[in-house]
Amino acid sequence: MATGDQNDFSSRLRQLLPNGWFPDTSPVLDAILNGISYCLALIYSLLAYAKLQTRLATVTDGFLDLAAFDYFGSFIARRTNEIDASLRARVFKNLLRPKATRAAIINLLTDLTGTAPIVFEPWRPLDCGALNENICGLNMAGGLGSLAIPYQAFITAYRPIGQGVPFIAGLNSSFAGLNVGSQSELASLSQIAGSVTDADLFAAVADAKVEGTMAWMKITNKS
User: Fold this and answer.
1) Quick one: angle between helices 61-72 and 84-95, nearest 10?
2) What gap in Å lies between CA 80 and CA 133, rounded to an integer?
3) Would you give the DSSP letter of residue 122?
4) Quick one: pLDDT at residue 161?
5) What is the bridge-based pairing of β-strands 180-181 and 152-159?
6) Exposure pattern of 1-14 as b/e (b: 16+ CB <10 Å)?
7) 128-180, pLDDT tens digit by residue?
8) R_g of the chain, CA atoms, integer Å
9) Strands 214-221 and 152-159
10) What pTM was computed for the model?
């Protein structure tokens, strides 16, 4: 018996009855009390569920999706087969996420893909070197800088290493077959659980960069 369940309410109601009015075994009374207790237990469970939805730390199910939409619109949405804990963690992480800096964009893409991106700013001496300064070398590091393209950055982001399609056997698998072993079928990228798409990466950088600046992005697979 747990607090708020049907047996708990039935026991509480019986304790409110006057002593001596009913015998210890009373099927008719028990049926009436259990009927009332069922309704009370249902109301109690609904109240407990509603209480969870009043705080971001405990909100669940579709209400968590609504909370994410309230804070971020379509920028953060539940991924395929994503559980509440994962979505809630992403919402919390993005509530106070730093933006508008080079480091913020690097951290954002690293969180999304698991791999740090390459960021090159033609106006930044540490990226392209400077005359008589020991920070870059020809054909060794950095890139060709130019003051003619200010407030721009070239970003190379890497797609996350996927976890594959769950419950589907791989190519040339020896343990898949008709009615035996694992399921075998033609799969697509849309079936990858919790995948981060190229569109997600483009949207993340567009949201994090400073207005009035331009970010040129190339998305490639991690070699």
Assistant:
1) 20
2) 50
3) T
4) 77
5) unpaired
6) eeeebbebbbeebe
7) 876 666 665 555 556 778 888 889 999 999 998 765 555 566 565 555 555 55
8) 29
9) parallel
10) 0.64
